Amino acid sequence: MVKNICCIGAGYVGGPSCAVIAYKCHDIKITIVDLNQARIDAWNSDVLPIYEPGLDEIVFARRGKNLFFTTEVDQAIIDADMIFVSVNTPTKKAGMGAGMAADLAYIENATRRIAQVATSSKIVIEKSTVPCRTAQSMRTVLEANSSGGIRFDILSNPEFLAEGTAIKDLTNPDRVLIGCLQTPEGFAAQQKLVSIYTNWIPKERVITMNLWSSELSKLAANALLAQRISSINALSAICEATGADVDEVAYACGTDSRIGPKFLKASVGFGGSCFQKDILNLVYLSEQLYLPEVAAYWKSVVTMNEYQKQRFTHRIVRTLFNTVTFKRIALLGFAFKKDTGDTRESAAITLCSYLIQERAHVAVYDPKVGAKQIRMDLTEPGV
Ligand code: NAI
User: Fold this and answer.
1) Which of 156, 169, 188, 263 is the most exposed place for a label (fewest CB within 10 A)?
2) Where is the UDP-glucose/GDP-mannose dehydrogenase C-terminal domain (predicted)?
Protein backbone atom coordinates (compact mmCIF):
# COMPACT_ATOMS: atom_id res chain seq x y z
CA MET A 1 0.00 0.00 0.00
CA VAL A 2 1.27 3.45 -0.91
CA LYS A 3 1.10 5.68 2.16
CA ASN A 4 3.46 8.48 1.32
CA ILE A 5 3.76 10.34 -1.99
CA CYS A 6 6.23 13.07 -2.92
CA CYS A 7 5.68 15.28 -5.94
CA ILE A 8 8.75 17.11 -7.29
CA GLY A 9 7.61 20.36 -8.97
CA ALA A 10 4.84 22.55 -7.52
CA GLY A 11 3.74 24.02 -10.84
CA TYR A 12 0.58 24.00 -12.95
CA VAL A 13 0.67 20.19 -13.09
CA GLY A 14 2.29 19.05 -9.83
CA GLY A 15 0.17 21.35 -7.63
CA PRO A 16 -3.35 20.59 -8.88
CA SER A 17 -2.78 16.91 -9.78
CA CYS A 18 -1.35 15.95 -6.40
CA ALA A 19 -3.79 18.19 -4.49
CA VAL A 20 -6.59 16.18 -6.11
CA ILE A 21 -4.99 12.88 -5.02
CA ALA A 22 -4.80 14.28 -1.45
CA TYR A 23 -8.45 15.34 -1.69
CA LYS A 24 -9.58 11.92 -2.90
CA CYS A 25 -7.29 9.73 -0.76
CA HIS A 26 -7.22 11.00 2.83
CA ASP A 27 -5.06 8.12 4.02
CA ILE A 28 -2.16 9.04 1.72
CA LYS A 29 0.22 11.78 2.82
CA ILE A 30 1.21 13.98 -0.13
CA THR A 31 4.20 16.32 0.03
CA ILE A 32 4.68 18.65 -2.93
CA VAL A 33 8.20 20.05 -3.14
CA ASP A 34 9.87 22.74 -5.19
CA LEU A 35 13.19 24.57 -5.23
CA ASN A 36 11.36 27.86 -5.70
CA GLN A 37 10.78 29.23 -2.18
CA ALA A 38 8.40 31.99 -3.34
CA ARG A 39 6.18 29.45 -5.08
CA ILE A 40 6.06 27.20 -2.01
CA ASP A 41 5.30 30.19 0.23
CA ALA A 42 2.40 31.07 -2.07
CA TRP A 43 1.07 27.50 -1.93
CA ASN A 44 1.13 27.82 1.86
CA SER A 45 -0.65 31.21 1.82
CA ASP A 46 -4.21 32.41 1.16
CA VAL A 47 -3.37 33.38 -2.43
CA LEU A 48 -2.20 30.32 -4.34
CA PRO A 49 0.50 30.83 -7.00
CA ILE A 50 -1.76 29.71 -9.83
CA TYR A 51 -5.36 30.52 -10.65
CA GLU A 52 -7.53 27.55 -11.48
CA PRO A 53 -11.29 27.37 -10.85
CA GLY A 54 -12.01 25.06 -7.89
CA LEU A 55 -8.36 24.70 -6.84
CA ASP A 56 -8.57 26.87 -3.70
CA GLU A 57 -11.32 24.76 -2.16
CA ILE A 58 -9.38 21.54 -2.69
CA VAL A 59 -6.08 22.86 -1.36
CA PHE A 60 -7.63 24.64 1.63
CA ALA A 61 -9.59 21.50 2.52
CA ARG A 62 -6.53 19.22 2.72
CA ARG A 63 -3.53 21.50 3.41
CA GLY A 64 -1.90 20.71 6.76
CA LYS A 65 -3.92 17.46 6.98
CA ASN A 66 -2.55 15.12 4.31
CA LEU A 67 -1.27 17.75 1.85
CA PHE A 68 1.99 19.64 2.44
CA PHE A 69 4.10 22.10 0.44
CA THR A 70 7.79 22.46 1.24
CA THR A 71 11.26 23.16 -0.16
CA GLU A 72 12.69 20.27 1.90
CA VAL A 73 13.15 18.13 -1.20
CA ASP A 74 15.51 15.53 0.26
CA GLN A 75 13.39 14.68 3.30
CA ALA A 76 10.28 14.31 1.15
CA ILE A 77 12.16 11.95 -1.19
CA ILE A 78 13.45 9.87 1.73
CA ASP A 79 9.97 9.52 3.25
CA ALA A 80 8.12 8.69 0.01
CA ASP A 81 7.06 5.29 -1.36
CA MET A 82 6.11 6.89 -4.65
CA ILE A 83 7.54 10.00 -6.34
CA PHE A 84 5.91 12.02 -9.10
CA VAL A 85 8.36 14.01 -11.21
CA SER A 86 6.38 17.04 -12.44
CA VAL A 87 9.17 19.44 -13.29
CA ASN A 88 9.22 21.72 -16.32
CA THR A 89 10.48 20.44 -19.69
CA PRO A 90 10.72 23.61 -21.80
CA THR A 91 12.07 23.80 -25.34
CA LYS A 92 15.88 23.95 -25.34
CA LYS A 93 17.21 27.46 -25.88
CA ALA A 94 20.79 26.56 -26.79
CA GLY A 95 22.96 23.66 -27.90
CA MET A 96 21.93 20.53 -29.78
CA GLY A 97 18.28 20.64 -30.82
CA ALA A 98 17.91 24.29 -29.69
CA GLY A 99 14.44 25.66 -30.48
CA MET A 100 12.98 22.17 -30.85
CA ALA A 101 14.11 19.47 -28.44
CA ALA A 102 12.85 19.36 -24.86
CA ASP A 103 15.29 20.56 -22.22
CA LEU A 104 15.59 17.52 -19.95
CA ALA A 105 18.00 19.12 -17.48
CA TYR A 106 15.29 19.59 -14.82
CA ILE A 107 14.19 15.96 -15.19
CA GLU A 108 17.75 14.77 -14.91
CA ASN A 109 18.50 16.91 -11.84
CA ALA A 110 15.39 15.70 -10.06
CA THR A 111 16.20 12.08 -10.98
CA ARG A 112 19.79 12.39 -9.75
CA ARG A 113 18.55 13.87 -6.49
CA ILE A 114 16.24 10.89 -5.97
CA ALA A 115 19.13 8.48 -6.62
CA GLN A 116 21.45 10.34 -4.27
CA VAL A 117 19.20 10.65 -1.24
CA ALA A 118 16.85 7.65 -1.40
CA THR A 119 17.42 5.13 1.37
CA SER A 120 14.61 2.74 0.37
CA SER A 121 12.95 1.47 -2.81
CA LYS A 122 10.67 3.86 -4.71
CA ILE A 123 8.23 3.94 -7.57
CA VAL A 124 9.27 6.92 -9.69
CA ILE A 125 6.61 8.37 -11.95
CA GLU A 126 7.30 10.44 -15.00
CA LYS A 127 4.47 12.99 -14.95
CA SER A 128 6.19 15.71 -17.01
CA THR A 129 5.76 15.57 -20.78
CA VAL A 130 8.93 14.07 -22.18
CA PRO A 131 10.27 12.68 -25.47
CA CYS A 132 9.80 8.98 -26.11
CA ARG A 133 12.25 6.79 -24.15
CA THR A 134 13.10 9.35 -21.44
CA ALA A 135 12.08 6.76 -18.84
CA GLN A 136 14.99 4.67 -20.08
CA SER A 137 17.42 7.52 -19.32
CA MET A 138 15.84 8.04 -15.90
CA ARG A 139 16.27 4.37 -15.16
CA THR A 140 19.91 4.44 -16.18
CA VAL A 141 20.57 7.46 -13.92
CA LEU A 142 18.73 5.90 -10.99
CA GLU A 143 20.45 2.53 -11.31
CA ALA A 144 23.92 4.03 -11.78
CA ASN A 145 23.63 6.36 -8.78
CA SER A 146 21.78 4.28 -6.27
CA SER A 147 23.34 2.29 -3.51
CA GLY A 148 22.82 -1.48 -3.25
CA GLY A 149 19.57 -3.04 -2.14
CA ILE A 150 17.35 -0.19 -3.36
CA ARG A 151 14.99 -0.76 -6.26
CA PHE A 152 13.46 1.89 -8.52
CA ASP A 153 10.48 1.12 -10.71
CA ILE A 154 9.65 3.70 -13.33
CA LEU A 155 6.16 4.46 -14.59
CA SER A 156 4.96 6.92 -17.20
CA ASN A 157 1.78 8.74 -16.20
CA PRO A 158 1.43 11.75 -18.52
CA GLU A 159 -0.96 14.48 -17.47
CA PHE A 160 -3.88 15.44 -19.71
CA LEU A 161 -5.34 18.28 -17.66
CA ALA A 162 -6.03 21.51 -19.51
CA GLU A 163 -5.40 24.75 -17.66
CA GLY A 164 -8.68 26.49 -16.87
CA THR A 165 -10.49 23.17 -16.41
CA ALA A 166 -7.78 21.33 -14.47
CA ILE A 167 -9.90 20.35 -11.46
CA LYS A 168 -12.72 19.03 -13.62
CA ASP A 169 -10.20 17.17 -15.80
CA LEU A 170 -8.50 15.66 -12.76
CA THR A 171 -11.63 14.66 -10.88
CA ASN A 172 -13.42 13.33 -13.96
CA PRO A 173 -10.80 12.57 -16.63
CA ASP A 174 -11.55 11.02 -20.03
CA ARG A 175 -8.71 8.64 -19.28
CA VAL A 176 -5.56 8.16 -17.23
CA LEU A 177 -2.56 6.53 -18.87
CA ILE A 178 -0.09 4.43 -16.95
CA GLY A 179 2.86 2.94 -18.83
CA CYS A 180 5.28 0.45 -17.34
CA LEU A 181 8.11 -1.87 -18.27
CA GLN A 182 6.55 -5.18 -19.29
CA THR A 183 8.13 -7.11 -16.39
CA PRO A 184 6.52 -8.60 -13.26
CA GLU A 185 8.01 -5.75 -11.16
CA GLY A 186 6.81 -3.17 -13.70
CA PHE A 187 3.27 -4.57 -13.63
CA ALA A 188 3.27 -4.63 -9.82
CA ALA A 189 4.27 -0.95 -9.67
CA GLN A 190 1.68 -0.09 -12.31
CA GLN A 191 -1.04 -1.79 -10.23
CA LYS A 192 -0.13 0.34 -7.20
CA LEU A 193 -0.74 3.51 -9.18
CA VAL A 194 -3.90 2.07 -10.75
CA SER A 195 -5.27 1.40 -7.27
CA ILE A 196 -4.72 5.04 -6.28
CA TYR A 197 -6.59 6.43 -9.30
CA THR A 198 -9.43 3.92 -9.04
CA ASN A 199 -10.33 5.48 -5.68
CA TRP A 200 -12.35 7.95 -7.76
CA ILE A 201 -11.95 7.08 -11.46
CA PRO A 202 -13.83 4.16 -13.07
CA LYS A 203 -11.43 1.29 -13.76
CA GLU A 204 -12.13 1.24 -17.51
CA ARG A 205 -10.82 4.79 -17.82
CA VAL A 206 -7.44 3.87 -16.34
CA ILE A 207 -5.52 2.61 -19.35
CA THR A 208 -2.36 0.57 -18.94
CA MET A 209 0.27 0.13 -21.64
CA ASN A 210 4.00 0.00 -22.17
CA LEU A 211 6.25 2.91 -21.20
CA TRP A 212 7.08 4.11 -24.70
CA SER A 213 3.47 4.08 -25.91
CA SER A 214 2.45 6.09 -22.87
CA GLU A 215 5.20 8.68 -23.42
CA LEU A 216 4.42 9.02 -27.10
CA SER A 217 0.63 9.16 -26.55
CA LYS A 218 0.97 12.45 -24.69
CA LEU A 219 2.93 14.09 -27.52
CA ALA A 220 0.55 12.58 -30.06
CA ALA A 221 -2.58 13.85 -28.28
CA ASN A 222 -1.26 17.41 -28.08
CA ALA A 223 -0.10 17.32 -31.70
CA LEU A 224 -3.55 16.13 -32.86
CA LEU A 225 -5.35 18.83 -30.84
CA ALA A 226 -3.10 21.61 -32.10
CA GLN A 227 -3.42 20.29 -35.65
CA ARG A 228 -7.20 20.82 -35.53
CA ILE A 229 -6.70 24.44 -34.47
CA SER A 230 -4.22 25.04 -37.27
CA SER A 231 -6.57 23.31 -39.73
CA ILE A 232 -9.53 25.54 -38.90
CA ASN A 233 -7.27 28.61 -38.86
CA ALA A 234 -5.97 27.72 -42.33
CA LEU A 235 -9.60 27.45 -43.46
CA SER A 236 -10.35 30.83 -41.86
CA ALA A 237 -7.86 32.45 -44.27
CA ILE A 238 -9.74 30.93 -47.21
CA CYS A 239 -13.07 32.06 -45.69
CA GLU A 240 -11.87 35.64 -45.35
CA ALA A 241 -10.69 35.64 -48.96
CA THR A 242 -13.91 34.17 -50.33
CA GLY A 243 -16.66 35.60 -48.13
CA ALA A 244 -17.45 32.25 -46.49
CA ASP A 245 -18.03 32.36 -42.71
CA VAL A 246 -15.55 30.17 -40.84
CA ASP A 247 -17.96 29.62 -37.92
CA GLU A 248 -20.54 28.25 -40.37
CA VAL A 249 -17.94 26.06 -42.03
CA ALA A 250 -16.74 24.80 -38.63
CA TYR A 251 -20.32 24.06 -37.59
CA ALA A 252 -21.04 22.23 -40.84
CA CYS A 253 -17.88 20.13 -40.49
CA GLY A 254 -18.21 19.59 -36.73
CA THR A 255 -21.69 18.08 -36.99
CA ASP A 256 -20.15 15.18 -38.90
CA SER A 257 -19.79 12.60 -36.13
CA ARG A 258 -16.48 11.42 -37.59
CA ILE A 259 -15.05 14.93 -37.13
CA GLY A 260 -16.85 16.22 -34.01
CA PRO A 261 -17.29 19.87 -32.94
CA LYS A 262 -14.47 20.36 -30.42
CA PHE A 263 -11.28 22.31 -31.15
CA LEU A 264 -12.72 23.73 -34.37
CA LYS A 265 -12.95 27.37 -33.34
CA ALA A 266 -10.97 29.74 -35.54
CA SER A 267 -8.88 32.11 -33.45
CA VAL A 268 -5.75 34.19 -33.24
CA GLY A 269 -3.82 30.94 -32.79
CA PHE A 270 -3.02 28.59 -29.96
CA GLY A 271 -0.73 29.51 -27.07
CA GLY A 272 0.23 27.93 -23.77
CA SER A 273 3.30 26.16 -22.54
CA CYS A 274 2.49 22.82 -24.15
CA PHE A 275 1.20 22.68 -27.73
CA GLN A 276 4.09 24.33 -29.53
CA LYS A 277 6.70 22.77 -27.25
CA ASP A 278 5.28 19.27 -27.61
CA ILE A 279 4.89 19.46 -31.40
CA LEU A 280 8.44 20.74 -31.79
CA ASN A 281 9.48 17.88 -29.59
CA LEU A 282 7.73 15.48 -31.97
CA VAL A 283 9.38 17.20 -34.94
CA TYR A 284 12.80 16.77 -33.34
CA LEU A 285 12.07 13.14 -32.54
CA SER A 286 11.04 12.53 -36.18
CA GLU A 287 14.23 14.14 -37.43
CA GLN A 288 16.31 12.04 -35.08
CA LEU A 289 14.55 8.95 -36.42
CA TYR A 290 15.38 10.00 -40.03
CA LEU A 291 11.74 10.69 -40.87
CA PRO A 292 12.00 14.12 -42.56
CA GLU A 293 8.55 13.98 -44.19
CA VAL A 294 6.93 13.26 -40.83
CA ALA A 295 8.92 16.09 -39.23
CA ALA A 296 7.83 18.54 -41.97
CA TYR A 297 4.19 17.49 -41.59
CA TRP A 298 4.03 18.30 -37.87
CA LYS A 299 6.21 21.40 -38.24
CA SER A 300 3.58 22.88 -40.54
CA VAL A 301 1.10 22.95 -37.62
CA VAL A 302 3.38 25.42 -35.82
CA THR A 303 4.11 27.37 -39.02
CA MET A 304 0.37 27.83 -39.60
CA ASN A 305 -0.05 29.05 -36.02
CA GLU A 306 2.63 31.72 -36.48
CA TYR A 307 1.06 32.74 -39.81
CA GLN A 308 -2.35 33.13 -38.16
CA LYS A 309 -0.98 35.43 -35.44
CA GLN A 310 0.75 37.57 -38.05
CA ARG A 311 -2.29 37.59 -40.33
CA PHE A 312 -4.49 38.72 -37.42
CA THR A 313 -2.27 41.74 -36.70
CA HIS A 314 -1.97 42.65 -40.38
CA ARG A 315 -5.74 42.64 -40.59
CA ILE A 316 -6.01 45.04 -37.62
CA VAL A 317 -3.53 47.40 -39.24
CA ARG A 318 -5.27 47.19 -42.64
CA THR A 319 -8.67 47.83 -41.07
CA LEU A 320 -7.36 50.92 -39.26
CA PHE A 321 -6.39 52.63 -42.56
CA ASN A 322 -3.02 50.90 -42.80
CA THR A 323 -1.54 52.62 -39.79
CA VAL A 324 -1.82 52.18 -36.05
CA THR A 325 0.93 54.64 -35.18
CA PHE A 326 -0.02 56.44 -31.94
CA LYS A 327 -3.45 54.82 -31.98
CA ARG A 328 -4.55 53.52 -28.60
CA ILE A 329 -5.53 49.87 -28.77
CA ALA A 330 -7.09 48.00 -25.87
CA LEU A 331 -6.24 44.36 -25.38
CA LEU A 332 -8.68 42.55 -23.12
CA GLY A 333 -7.11 39.36 -21.81
CA PHE A 334 -3.43 38.51 -21.75
CA ALA A 335 -3.32 34.91 -20.47
CA PHE A 336 -3.15 32.26 -23.17
CA LYS A 337 -6.80 31.39 -22.62
CA LYS A 338 -9.70 31.99 -20.28
CA ASP A 339 -9.81 30.83 -16.64
CA THR A 340 -6.06 30.85 -16.19
CA GLY A 341 -3.43 33.43 -15.29
CA ASP A 342 -0.75 31.57 -17.28
CA THR A 343 0.79 33.72 -20.01
CA ARG A 344 3.36 31.27 -21.34
CA GLU A 345 3.39 31.46 -25.18
CA SER A 346 0.20 33.51 -25.11
CA ALA A 347 -0.82 34.74 -28.56
CA ALA A 348 -1.41 38.10 -26.83
CA ILE A 349 2.35 38.50 -26.40
CA THR A 350 2.99 38.17 -30.13
CA LEU A 351 0.04 40.40 -30.91
CA CYS A 352 1.26 43.13 -28.54
CA SER A 353 4.78 42.96 -29.84
CA TYR A 354 3.60 43.35 -33.49
CA LEU A 355 1.36 46.28 -32.55
CA ILE A 356 4.10 47.98 -30.54
CA GLN A 357 6.48 47.57 -33.49
CA GLU A 358 3.83 49.39 -35.54
CA ARG A 359 4.09 52.09 -32.85
CA ALA A 360 0.57 51.66 -31.49
CA HIS A 361 -0.16 52.55 -27.86
CA VAL A 362 -1.33 49.28 -26.39
CA ALA A 363 -3.32 49.12 -23.14
CA VAL A 364 -3.58 45.62 -21.69
CA TYR A 365 -5.96 44.35 -19.05
CA ASP A 366 -6.37 40.88 -17.60
CA PRO A 367 -8.09 40.23 -14.27
CA LYS A 368 -5.77 37.30 -13.54
CA VAL A 369 -2.46 38.66 -14.81
CA GLY A 370 -0.64 41.47 -13.00
CA ALA A 371 1.08 44.40 -14.70
CA LYS A 372 4.49 43.11 -13.56
CA GLN A 373 3.99 39.79 -15.38
CA ILE A 374 2.75 41.56 -18.53
CA ARG A 375 5.81 43.84 -18.57
CA MET A 376 8.09 40.85 -17.99
CA ASP A 377 6.54 38.93 -20.91
CA LEU A 378 6.86 41.93 -23.22
CA THR A 379 10.50 42.58 -22.37
CA GLU A 380 11.68 38.96 -22.74
CA PRO A 381 14.60 38.65 -25.15
CA GLY A 382 13.23 37.99 -28.63
CA VAL A 383 9.83 39.61 -28.05
P1 NAI B 1 5.89 24.69 -14.12
O2 NAI B 1 7.06 25.44 -14.66
O3 NAI B 1 4.65 25.43 -13.73
O4 NAI B 1 6.33 23.84 -12.81
C5 NAI B 1 7.50 23.11 -12.73
C6 NAI B 1 8.10 23.33 -11.35
O7 NAI B 1 9.16 22.40 -11.15
C8 NAI B 1 8.69 24.71 -11.13
O9 NAI B 1 8.04 25.36 -10.04
C10 NAI B 1 10.18 24.44 -10.83
O11 NAI B 1 10.72 25.34 -9.87
C12 NAI B 1 10.12 23.03 -10.31
N13 NAI B 1 11.39 22.30 -10.40
C14 NAI B 1 12.23 22.19 -11.47
N15 NAI B 1 13.28 21.40 -11.16
C16 NAI B 1 13.11 21.02 -9.88
C17 NAI B 1 13.86 20.19 -8.99
N18 NAI B 1 14.99 19.58 -9.39
N19 NAI B 1 13.41 20.01 -7.73
C20 NAI B 1 12.28 20.60 -7.32
N21 NAI B 1 11.50 21.39 -8.12
C22 NAI B 1 11.92 21.59 -9.38
O23 NAI B 1 5.55 23.57 -15.20
P24 NAI B 1 4.14 22.85 -15.46
O25 NAI B 1 3.28 23.68 -16.33
O26 NAI B 1 3.59 22.35 -14.17
O27 NAI B 1 4.60 21.61 -16.34
C28 NAI B 1 5.30 20.51 -15.79
C29 NAI B 1 5.34 19.40 -16.81
O30 NAI B 1 4.00 18.97 -17.10
C31 NAI B 1 5.93 19.81 -18.16
O32 NAI B 1 6.63 18.71 -18.67
C33 NAI B 1 4.71 20.09 -19.01
O34 NAI B 1 4.95 19.89 -20.37
C35 NAI B 1 3.73 19.05 -18.50
N36 NAI B 1 2.32 19.39 -18.67
C37 NAI B 1 1.88 20.67 -18.44
C38 NAI B 1 0.53 20.97 -18.58
C39 NAI B 1 0.04 22.36 -18.35
O40 NAI B 1 -1.13 22.61 -18.66
N41 NAI B 1 0.82 23.27 -17.80
C42 NAI B 1 -0.45 19.95 -18.96
C43 NAI B 1 0.11 18.64 -19.12
C44 NAI B 1 1.44 18.39 -18.99
Assistant:
1) 188
2) 330-383
| Contacting residues for 162 by C-beta, under 8 A, at least 6 apart | 169
Please give the Cα distance from 302 to 294 (Å, whole number).
14
- Given this model, what pLDDT does residue 127 score? 98
Q: Tell which atom from ligand 1 comes closest to the C-alpha of 106.
A: 15
Q: What are 136-148's pLDDT values in tens digits?
A: 999 999 988 777 7
Distance between first and last Cα of the chain:
50
Q: What pLDDT, on a 0 to 100 scale, did the predictor assign at position 381?
A: 85
Pairing of strands 67-70, 82-85: unpaired
Arithmetic mean of pLDDT over the chain: 96
Considering the entire predicted model, what is its pTM?
0.96
- Whose Cα sits closest to atom 21 in ligand 1? 34
- 274 given a catalytic annotation: yes
Q: Stretch 214-239: mean pLDDT, rounded? A: 98
- What CA–CA distance (Å, rounded) separates 93 from 99? 6
Q: What is the pLDDT of residue 337?
A: 94
Residue nearest to atom 10 of ligand 1 (CA): 9
Q: How far is the CA of 35 from the centre of ligand 1 (A)?
A: 11
Q: How confident is the model at residue 134 (pLDDT cuts 50, 70, 90)?
A: very high
Residues with Cβ within 6 A of ligand 1? 8-14, 33-36, 39, 73, 86-89, 106, 109-110, 128-129, 159, 161, 163, 273-274
Residue 10 CA, ligand 1 centroid: distance in Å: 7
